[in-house]
Structure formats: structure tokens, C-alpha cells
Amino acid sequence: MEDLRYFWDTDSNLESPINVLVKLVRPLTVPKLLWYNVKVKPYKTKITNNGYSVFVTSKWGRTMPFISDGPLAEKKFLFYNMHFHWSDTNAKGSEHKINHEIFPFEMHVLWRNEAYKTARKAKREYDGIVIMAYLFEVSPNENQLLEPIVDCLEEVKKGVSSTYMKDSASVSELIRLFEDDYFLYRGCVKDSKMTHQVTWMVSKQIQQIGTKQVAGCQIQTPAEDKRISDSSQFERDH
């Protein structure tokens, strides 16, 4: 566990997302990552086109989903939001690369450290935010986990707008849960105001997204009449 203590105690100035070169990855033995309350449905789930990306935010009562253990040790990280990165072609769109390979679609799931009462405060701390990254390749078959979100996108296609899921989905109904088999690294995300330290978990398992689902994700910005891509999860989130 000495490597893990060093991981958390060392500040990172590495700009992220990154190109993961698998041959340079160092194995790290840690306990399994644990997920809690991920089957609890929120009472409200909002889908927002903010002009740069699509964000998924949810409201729970007292029982919020969180992750802990694994490399997080005793720290608890509460679900914050989800958002997506893609381009107007199926050839590129992801922010992370694996051995220089770019993927058509990438999903980020943000979690904030429970020790900090708001996401704004968490973003200022070295251990405040964990981002899970999922990479997708296009498939003839639709991804059932994405369907609840894709079904709502038609209502937010024409500019900055929001809608609500008719039947809110739990975290486990929207993303693939993993306990291990991921790339772990610390990096920085910059916006116009400051640099934020982030802990990244990049799932090694490449996900599938259906051709029709990719087409359904082509949302236009109100100002430039072009498909969304290259959003910043820190400067432009809500």
C-alpha cells in the first residue's frame, strides 16, 4: 500500500486527459472498488444541453450513491454528474487515447469527495474529484444502458435547454460498474480561472454504442449550428 499512499500524497501537474501507453503502465495492487446505493433510483433526473455537451444530473433524498475502497481507501465519493464527448464523425471524439487510438465516443462520470460539502469546494482540493472515463466503439447493436439518455436527447437538440427523464434511472441502470481492470492516474484539468487536480479511472473494457444512438447524440449548438464536441467538464458544467 506504500505505492497508494505515494499516489495520494503527490501533487500532479500532468495535463489530462492523456494518451495511455499500455506498455508503460505500472501494475498497482489495490482492494476492489466498491459501489454503494447505485440501485437506488433518484426522484429526479435532468438532461441538459448547455451548448457544449450533454449533462446528466440527478437528485436523491438522504440515500445517495457513492464509491469507496479500492484506491480511494476510506474516502467516500458521491455521484455528481455524467457528460459526454463526441465529434461529428465516428472516427474520433474521445478525449483519452489508448496506444494513440482515438474512439468515437467517451463518457465521463464525476464523483465528489464527501468531505467537501459542495462540488465547487471539492474542485479546489487535490483529492476532491474522481472522474471515471468510459470509451466506446460503434456497434450495430444498441447499448441498453445509454437508452434512457438517448431517448431524451430529441427534446434538447435545438440549443441550450433541459428536460427530465420520465422514469429516472439509477446509476447501475446507466453505467457499467467495475471493481478493477481500469487505468488509474492523477492529472490536471485547466479552465480559464484555475487548474484542478483530478483522479482518473479509465475503464479498460471498451463499451459499445449503436450506430443509431450515435446519430441520436448529434446535438447542435445554438450559436454555431454545429455538433457538440470538446467540452470542458470544469468550466462549463453546472
TrEMBL record:
InterPro entries: CA_dom, CA_dom_sf, Carbonic_anhydrase_a-class, Carbonic_anhydrase_a-class_CS. One of its GO terms (molecular function) is carbonate dehydratase activity. Pfam families: Carb_anhydrase. Its cofactor is Zn(2+). The keyword NADP does not apply. It catalyses: hydrogencarbonate + H(+) = CO2 + H2O. GO terms for cellular component: cytoplasm. Signal peptide: none annotated. PANTHER family: CARBONIC ANHYDRASE, CARBONIC ANHYDRASE 14. Reversible hydration of carbon dioxide. Belongs to the alpha-carbonic anhydrase family. This is Carbonic anhydrase. The lineage of its organism: Eukaryota, Metazoa, Ecdysozoa, Arthropoda, Hexapoda.
